[in-house]
What does this fold into?
Amino acid sequence: MTKTMKNIDSFGHLRGESLFVDDIITKQNTLFGLVFDSSCAHGKISKIDYSQAEDIEGVIRIFTYKDIPGVNQIGGIIPDEPLWAEKEVHFAGQPIAFIVAKSELIAKKARALIQVEFRDLPVITSAKEAKEKNSFINAPRSFNLGNTKSSFSECEYVFEGETFSNGQEHLYLETQGCYAYPMENGNIKIISSTQGPTQVQKAAAKVLDLPMHKIEVEVIRLGGGFGGKEDQATAWAIMAAIAVQHLRKPVKFVLNRHDDLRMTGKRHPYESSYKIGLTKELKIKAFEAEFLQNSGAAADLSPAIAERTLFHATNCYYIPNVRTTVYSCKTNLPPNTAFRGFGGPQGMFVIESAISKAANELGINKRFIQEANLIGENEEYYYGQIASNVEAKNSWVTARKEFDLDTLENDVADFNEKNDRYKKGISIMPIAFGISFTNTPMNHARALVHIYQDGSVGLSTGAVEMGQSVNTKMLQIAADTLGIEPKYIKLETTNTTRVANTSPSAASSTADLNGKAVLKACKSLNDRLVKIAANLLNVNEKSLSFQTNFVFIDNKKTKHTWQEIVAKAMMERVALTENAHYATPEIHFDKTKEKGHPFAYHVYGTSITTITLDCLQGTYEIDSVKIVHDFGKSMNMGIDTGQVEGALVQGIGWMTMEEISYDEKGKLLSNALSTYKIPDIFSVPKKIEIIPLETEGNKMAIYRSKAVGEPPLMYGIGTYFAIQNAIASFNKEYKLAFNSPYTPEKVLMSLYENHI
Ligand code: MTE
Ligand code: HPA
Ligand code: MOS
It folds into this structure.
């Protein structure tokens, strides 16, 4: 019924009426916060003097770790991250103090007057160097299947190599921020731009030494999160809350873009090595990989991200003998964090690199190796989950057929034969992405539904709207289940006093988890109202339903309305509120064995990317990306297609142009949009074609509509290999490099490497 609904925010966004943190009308006496951060990536604070800054008219107070009532600790998985540095700093951009002033401008002036001196300590910026120096976040982890040692010796071909994939800046349109204010009895309300309201509440309670119920966290919506606000919205909210606790005045704190870029973590860069063994028939018999994750100066979500790298290290291939190890390497960069794909893309880049290398050495088309190894029904993912309802081959074959891959490849070959300056490259990228938080206990959600006595409905869930349109999906479910028109339903803000103990909106699972809870709550209410209507009209409950606001009997519309029945229920003192809880069934994972069934299901798909390379300049254009994607039974094709396109372009950005750069002292060089380039309308593919794969979906997905937020990002990886392919057809001496992003500068070097 509601499948063609537009994102309910589109109207407000377009008119500039949607509210983000910075749009909230400020209360009287609101103060403004600004962080004073470390300019040194590793060192001891030998001297710090705030006096000049404090003397400025309009500066209210400068807070440091000494003002923390509870613990100076915000680490979620591992307690290794102070809110404010005490005696040492571990990355450039690390918060040291929090200036609260009458205006942002005053706070900025004050910041410039803080005198600080550091005694420098050695700075580590790369994961490799960290490993050499034994600098780790935690113990390494390994996943195993079969026996790689013995099976390599049985392989016809064995290849080894190294890869690098760089970090990525989230560049949400709305920077990090919050607005905190005092309530009565020492209670505090925080409006935050966070994916994890409960995360903020829990961490704030610890640092402020308050029980969680004294802190209310509210989220209206985010101007993008992309993982960057799963964990890293917390620190800012706590800083503002501490100021509120001391001053009992409202404090607003929205980071400017430079501060946000400098102080926040990004996608993890990975330095990895692999060994791949194949049989004569091109079956991958053995695969080993070692991943060095550049975690930054504190754990943040790194251990969970490292785990997902292992889960996706074999992408959508069945390999009988696998051994993978990941090291979370502690460096002096800002703690790196969740980013769409959550370590999965980094893992998949390595296996795709290994296959490319093997194909190149064997002088064959890479796709023959890919095709020969796609996972099939009842084969085992190397972490123990038996693949079921697998769509790897289906999506591959459909893409080949629907997009006529043979012709596309012939066209590329023809073009390359006829042209010298320009060369085309083509690649095919199959994906499999596991849906669920890899940490099983996080897979749950709740919904709270109020039907007001006039028949209008208020719907609260734990889901955070960040542009992915989860609110629209929640509204669809409620409207369809209650049998009323969407206009009678209001999506409430996400608030910890209405829906408590939530997991962050992440892992692409928000719609599944919260949607199933909405479905459950609305079903209960619907049952209740059907009973009342059936009584009133003296018909059998089974023959009665609500549809588009009216009572239907035997699927025939009556004149009785939903509003009428709600009013009747009210008179009969029937509860018009329902709260429901959903927890994903069946999933489990045993970390002592590193085996289990961690995912509710997998999302599959295959993309074909064609690019044209200017071999004089090293620049390239993406001609087309053609995708067969496994939406299951999409509950909203417009929204889901938007997610595929957006994720694809973000993946392409990561693989081609977004180059995070730190100097050897750990200072961010790509610290503005002049030095950090993301895809714009001129660099996106000239054509994106998406064909939905015909499948039954999965019962664990809401309405059998599969999660879509992250998986399509990995189609972007295909672009790297399409570029590589074009370079190889120009420069026969080119030694395949697996060093992303493939910026035009790097491409140009590759084009003329060993070239005569
Ligand atoms: N789409 C938009 N427009 N903005 C975002 O911030 N985040 C992505 C993805 N799509 C994001 C987005 C990430 S990282 C995740 S995990 C999912 O949306 C989260 O939402 P979902 O669970 O509802 O898919
Ligand atoms: N994905 C995203 N976020 C997470 C996960 C995950 O698997 N686990 C914990 N946070
Ligand atoms: Mo997404 S990286 O799970 O927020």
Q: What stands out?
A: Residues 510-537 form the longest helix (28 residues). Residues 230, 301, 304, 308, 338, 342, 437-439, 442, 506-507 surround hypoxanthine (ligand 2) (CB under 6 Å).
